[in-house]
């Protein structure tokens, strides 16, 4: 459900981020059963924070955990989230030209 809300509502995305939602979602994912909805919500939030924040929160190790042990849906969402981060990072690097 969180993934649906964060997909289309900028105010909700900002609220989730300001209340520490990214950290909470990442902690949740380190458990034995990563959930697709939590990964989907993270995928929707990554464009609203800097790469430095994602690195400091351990985003990539959590996504790798999901890729190794999550359900197929969670793995697909994690792969999509990683692709989104890489795309945003590439876009940031080309903006200065």
TrEMBL record:
Family annotation (InterPro entries): ARM-like (IPR011989), ARM-type_fold (IPR016024)
Gene3D superfamilies according to UniProt: Leucine-rich Repeat Variant
Highest taxon in the source lineage: Eukaryota
The protein, known as: U-box domain-containing protein
Source organism of this protein record: Prunus armeniaca (Apricot)
Lineage of the organism: Eukaryota, Viridiplantae, Streptophyta, Embryophyta, Tracheophyta
